[in-house]
Specification:
By secondary structure, the chain is an all-alpha fold. 50% of the residues lie in helices and 0% in strands. Iron/sulfur cluster (SF4) binds next to helix 12 and helix 15.
Length: 331
């Protein structure tokens, strides 16, 4: 018979499936219950789970656990993070506009492109155009010349157009929140806006990319289709609730770094995982799996967890496609 709690998968495809049963961070859609009948639609998932004696398997409902998870993830990140030029600038650059610009350039370059490839391009770009103003004054030919070999040339062009807009229409001031960044800057989507705002400004806003989707789905044993808009909405809500309030930029980078280096699509290194204590997929399967099948098996254990990161390896995950590669570069 089904494992209690594991029928509590996200099954809803329509937004109405969520709105009628919402509540709780990452609340799940209660399907047919293993112990007899579905919970009342009027009950939020946490209360319904508790009433049935089921674990709130797909939720982060315990504030103490959330705190512990944040602490473990950040401690691991402090020890293990890769030394990358945009990370150094995000920490050392005192000017907020230059800092945001430095993070922005890295995020655009990392879309669809591997970290190792980006580093040299990034260093040359920042050397040539260290500020928004410098980039705004460059010619498109110069931009394309430096971008040559990185692919998706429209990214460089849009970056420059957006820089010109900031200089000419916003008095050289980068928008100061994720919402404003997304609204005002062409080519900046929800993910990029959240990354710039959390890393550059310390805004407590989450990010969701392919790596984050995979990690969150595994942590909470979520087997639902992550390409479904309601599921994506819930993952954003979960990321926003989880993000560490005092170190949001580091937390977001840590979650993505975990997905890129430890919680990989195939053969995740569960034994080395800093948050394995919190991983419900790992608990479900009982042992660290050797591989993750590409086809979801339909349960909520690790084999059922979708691997939404598109081909492209590390870069695809850290490359920060807005949502599982469905948004074209620059979105
Ligand atoms: S324990 Fe394994 S599956 Fe769970 S988050 Fe860590 S690496 Fe991923």
């Amino acid at each position: 018979s089904p494992t209690p709690g594991c029928d509590w998968l996200w099954r809803g495809k329509r937004r109405s499936d969520w709105s009628s049963r919402g509540g709780g961070v990452g609340g799940c859609f209660p399907g047919k219950n293993a112990r007899g009948g579905p919970p009342s639609p009027a009950m939020g998932p946490l209360r319904a789970a508790a009433a049935r004696g089921l674990p709130a398997l797909h939720l982060f409902g315990d504030p103490a656990e959330v705190e512990a998870l944040r602490g473990r993830l950040l401690a691991w990140y402090d020890q293990s993070k890769r030394d990358l030029p945009w990370r150094a600038l995000a920490v050392t650059e005192p000017d907020v506009n230059r800092r945001a610009y430095a993070v922005w350039v890295s995020e655009i370059m990392l879309q669809q492109t591997q970290v190792a490839t980006v580093i040299d391009y990034y260093n040359r770009w920042m050397q040539k155009w260290p500020t928004l103003q410098a980039l705004a004054e460059a010619s498109l030919e110069e931009v394309n010349e430096l971008w040559a070999g990185l692919g998706y040339y429209s990214r460089g062009k849009r970056l420059q157009e957006a820089a010109r807009k900031v200089v000419s229409e916003l008095a050289g001031q980068m928008p100061r929140t994720a919402e404003e960044l997304q609204k005002l800057l062409p080519g900046v989507g929800r993910y990029t806006a959240g990354a710039i705002a959390s890393i550059s400004y310390g805004q407590a806003t989450g990010v969701v990319d392919g790596n984050v989707i995979r990690v969150l789905c595994r942590l909470r044993c979520i087997g639902a289709d992550p390409s479904s808009p309601p599921v994506i909405d819930r993952l954003w809500a979960m990321a926003n609730a989880l993000v560490d309030r005092s170190r949001p930029g580091d937390f977001n980078q840590a979650l993505m770094e975990l997905g890129a280096t430890v919680c990989t699509p195939k053969a995740p290194l569960c034994g080395e995982c800093p948050v394995k204590q919190h991983c419900r997929a790992r608990l479900r399967v009982g042992v660290a799996p050797k591989t993750v099948p590409s086809q979801p098996a339909g349960g909520c254990g690790l084999p059922a967890v979708p691997s939404p990161v598109p081909s492209g390896g590390e870069g695809a995950g850290l490359g920060l496609s807005e949502v599982i590669g469905k948004t074209p570069p620059g979105a």
